[in-house]
Automatic annotation (TrEMBL):
Pfam families according to UniProt: DUF2007
Limits of the DUF2007 domain: 10-69
InterPro entries hit by this protein: DUF2007 (IPR018551)
Official protein name in the record: Putative signal transducing protein
Superkingdom of origin: Bacteria
Length: 74
Protein backbone atom coordinates (compact mmCIF):
# COMPACT_ATOMS: atom_id res chain seq x y z
CA UNK A 1 0.00 0.00 0.00
CA UNK A 2 1.43 3.33 -1.11
CA UNK A 3 0.81 6.28 1.25
CA UNK A 4 0.44 9.80 -0.11
CA UNK A 5 0.63 13.01 1.90
CA UNK A 6 -2.78 14.64 1.84
CA UNK A 7 -1.84 17.74 3.85
CA UNK A 8 0.98 19.09 6.01
CA UNK A 9 0.13 20.87 9.27
CA UNK A 10 2.02 22.96 11.79
CA UNK A 11 0.53 21.17 14.80
CA UNK A 12 -0.65 17.69 15.65
CA UNK A 13 -4.04 19.02 16.80
CA UNK A 14 -4.83 20.38 13.32
CA UNK A 15 -3.90 17.04 11.76
CA UNK A 16 -5.95 15.08 14.30
CA UNK A 17 -9.10 17.14 13.60
CA UNK A 18 -9.01 16.26 9.91
CA UNK A 19 -7.94 12.68 10.69
CA UNK A 20 -11.05 12.15 12.84
CA UNK A 21 -13.30 13.59 10.12
CA UNK A 22 -11.78 11.38 7.43
CA UNK A 23 -11.90 8.25 9.58
CA UNK A 24 -15.57 8.96 10.34
CA UNK A 25 -16.04 8.78 6.56
CA UNK A 26 -14.20 5.43 6.25
CA UNK A 27 -10.81 6.80 5.13
CA UNK A 28 -7.89 5.24 6.98
CA UNK A 29 -5.31 7.91 7.82
CA UNK A 30 -1.79 8.03 9.24
CA UNK A 31 -0.03 10.90 11.01
CA UNK A 32 3.75 11.29 10.64
CA UNK A 33 6.09 13.84 12.19
CA UNK A 34 3.92 14.51 15.22
CA UNK A 35 6.52 13.49 17.81
CA UNK A 36 9.22 15.67 16.29
CA UNK A 37 6.77 18.56 15.87
CA UNK A 38 5.61 18.31 19.48
CA UNK A 39 9.13 18.05 20.85
CA UNK A 40 10.85 20.61 18.65
CA UNK A 41 8.07 23.00 17.66
CA UNK A 42 10.58 25.70 16.68
CA UNK A 43 12.00 23.43 13.98
CA UNK A 44 8.65 22.27 12.66
CA UNK A 45 9.01 23.93 9.24
CA UNK A 46 12.42 22.42 8.60
CA UNK A 47 11.37 18.97 9.83
CA UNK A 48 8.55 18.69 7.30
CA UNK A 49 5.70 19.44 9.70
CA UNK A 50 2.96 17.03 10.73
CA UNK A 51 1.97 15.01 7.68
CA UNK A 52 -1.44 13.43 7.26
CA UNK A 53 -1.19 10.53 4.82
CA UNK A 54 -3.77 8.32 3.17
CA UNK A 55 -3.66 5.32 0.91
CA UNK A 56 -3.12 6.06 -2.76
CA UNK A 57 -6.48 4.35 -3.44
CA UNK A 58 -8.30 6.72 -1.04
CA UNK A 59 -6.54 9.93 -2.07
CA UNK A 60 -9.24 11.35 -4.37
CA UNK A 61 -12.07 10.70 -1.93
CA UNK A 62 -9.99 12.02 0.96
CA UNK A 63 -9.19 15.18 -0.99
CA UNK A 64 -12.90 15.78 -1.70
CA UNK A 65 -13.79 15.20 1.95
CA UNK A 66 -11.01 17.54 3.05
CA UNK A 67 -12.46 20.27 0.81
CA UNK A 68 -15.88 19.72 2.41
CA UNK A 69 -14.31 19.83 5.88
CA UNK A 70 -12.64 23.18 5.32
CA UNK A 71 -15.64 24.68 3.51
CA UNK A 72 -17.82 23.80 6.50
CA UNK A 73 -15.44 25.58 8.88
CA UNK A 74 -15.48 28.85 6.91
Amino acid sequence: MELITLKIFNTEIEAEMLKIFLETNDIETYVFGNILANTYNLFNNTSGGVQLKVSENDFEKANELMTQFYNKES
